[in-house]
Amino acid sequence: MNKDNKEKESIKKGKVGIVVSDKMDKTVVVKIDRLKMHAKYKKKYKISKKYKAHDEENEFKIGDKVEIVEVRPMSKEKKWMAKKVKSL
C-alpha cells in the first residue's frame, strides 16, 4: 500500500444528530436530519434516519447533540460511535 491509500482509509465518515433514545446499555439512538431536493419539482424536503451508536460510559442523554463517527461493526446494527457533544 502506498501513502495515498492509507490516507483514504483513515478518513472516517461523521454525522451530527440528536439523541432520541438512551434506554439500551452502552448504546444510544441518534436521529440525523438532512435536506433532499425533489428531482422534478426542485422543492427541498427533510429526510430523517436513525442510527445506533456506541456510548461506552452511558454519558449521552435524550436531547443531546452529538457527533457520530463510523467504526468497525460492533453488532448487527451498531456501526457508529458517539464521540462528543457539540456545543451550540
Molecular structure report:
The chain has 88 residues and is mainly β. The protein has one helix spanning 3-10; strands at 14-21, 27-37, 44-54, 65-70, 78-85. It has a five-stranded mixed β-barrel with strand order 1-2-3-5-4. The longest helix has 8 residues, at 3-10. The model has no long low-confidence stretch (mean pLDDT 89).
Short description:
The protein is mainly beta. The protein has 1 helix and 5 strands; from the N terminus they run αβββββ. It has a 5-stranded mixed β-barrel.
Describe the structure using short key phrases:
88 residues, mainly beta, OB fold (Dihydrolipoamide Acetyltransferase, E2P), 1 helix, 5 strands, globular
What's the arrangement of secondary structure elements?
Elements: H1 3-10, E1 14-21, E2 27-37, E3 44-54, E4 65-70, E5 78-85
Parallel strand pairs: 3-5
Antiparallel strand pairs: 1-2, 1-4, 2-3, 4-5
Main β-sheet, spatial strand arrangement: 1-2-3-5-4
CATH architecture: Beta Barrel
Query: What fraction of the residues are assigned to beta strands by DSSP?
Result: over 45%
Ends distance: 41 Å
Low-pLDDT ranges: none
Oligomer: single chain
